[in-house]
Amino acid sequence: MYYKFSDYFKKQGFGTKVYKVTVDAGFSCPNIDGTISDKGCIFCNNKSFSAATRQKEISIENQIEQGIKALNKRYKADKFIVYFQAFTNTYGPIERLKETYEKIKQFNNVIGISIGTRPDCVDENIIKLIGSYADNYEVWIEYGLQSVNNETLRNINRGHSFEDFIKALDLTRKNKKIKICAHVIIGLPGEKKKDLINTAKEVGRLKLEGIKIHPLHVVKETELEKLYNDGTFKPLGLKEYVDLASNFLEYLWPETVVQRITADCPRDLLIAPEWINNKTLVLREIDKTLIEKNTFQGRLFNK
């Protein structure tokens, strides 16, 4: 019904499931250090979506080692992608970036690298560096897009435009070995269904290799928490999200890998909605809805 990450790895011939080890490499972000803004995105508290951020005093090597051990114990996993997740992992001097990425070479069972960043934080030298790993590793770059609607991006204090994303996409595609994953959020303040479908159509048209779809949720110590508390923002209910996510999938390119279609959050940081932490339920409801509507990823994709 949709192209799952697990199916992608089978297609690539790895012969086993591949798991991501998340890492906090100690980078910052221009949207919180004052370069663009010191407020950040209204939903952002990195501690809520990166377990590694809570352990950033631990070296990168130890984070990778501990992550591998935990995944091996829980899932019997033996192949891994190191995911530099927290904050903006291309935001720094090229020498530091290279030193950081090189850490993966210490682990024989690491078969890939995935680098999370912003579309306004890459240049030719950075793309060249990232691409240099593609001869020996599965290489992904993950761009936080969130929406193609510039008014929405301004409302959430994203600090970049859709045009910035297109520039980063064009630059990255000069190296055909780098796979590109975009992050989008369903349920952003002020967005109507037509805005979300516009994002789905544009992302589909771009034929990205991957996408992560997140439901917007309210986390402590964010601007969104204030909006939630004063009644300005209300998160989506489970059925609303499932219907929108299912509809979003219909407009995607069929070959775009859906790396994620839900979210989770540490319970001590989550304000609302509680349903996001029932991942199994969310995935089951999306599958159920696609079956009931007799639809699938790419059904409405416009070639």
Polypeptide structure, described:
With 303 residues, the chain is of the alpha/beta class. 35% of the residues lie in helices and 17% in strands. The chain contains ten helices and nine strands. Strands 1-2-3-4-5-6-8 form a seven-stranded parallel beta sheet. A two-stranded antiparallel sheet has the order 7-9. It is globular and about 45 Å long.
Helix and strand layout, with pairings?
Blueprint: H1 5-12, E1 19-23, H2 60-75, E2 80-84, H3 94-101, E3 110-117, H4 124-131, E4 138-146, H5 150-155, H6 162-172, E5 179-186, H7 193-206, E6 210-215, E7 218-219, H8 223-229, H9 238-250, E8 257-260, E9 270-272, H10 279-292
Parallel strand pairs: 1-2, 2-3, 3-4, 4-5, 5-6, 6-8
Antiparallel strand pairs: 7-9
Helix and strand composition category? alpha/beta
Pick out the low-confidence regions.
none
Record field, number of beta strands: 9
Widest beta sheet: strand line-up = 1-2-3-4-5-6-8
Averaged pLDDT, please? 95
Cα Rg: 18 Å
Report the β-strand fraction as a percent range. 15-25%
The share of residues in helices is: 25-40%
Q: What is the count of helical runs?
A: 10
Q: Sheet with the most strands?
A: 7 strands, parallel
Based on CA inertia axes, which overall geometry fits? globular
The end-to-end distance, rounded to whole angstroms, is: 19 Å
Q: Summarize the helix and strand pattern as letters.
A: HEHEHEHEHHEHEEHHEEH
